[in-house]
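#onboarding

Welcome to the new folks! Below is a worked example of what a typical request in this channel looks like: someone posts a single protein sequence, and someone else replies with the predicted structure as tokens. Don't worry about understanding the tokens yet, we'll cover that in week two.

Example request:
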Amino acid sequence: MATSHLRILLEGQLQGLNFRLNTQELARQLNLVGFVRHLADGRIEIDAQGEKKSLEKLLTWCQDKPHAAKITSIFYLYDNELTNGSNDFTVRK
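Example response:
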């Protein structure tokens, strides 16, 4: 199956909820590669590659409770811009 790329930007109060670690755990379970990190402006960025069905599960999870109650907006983009090099899903600082 073809590999797709998904970039998600989340705004809200997600610090203190272990959101990045939980994202990493789920992404690894879904066999995705990429990263999650806090941006300087307070948003969280998720950059993931893998099977489209797995990416869709990740996006749906981002919209689920309990953490979704703290999210004020979600922006996402699917594209075919694949990056090479990563074979894991990491939490970046």
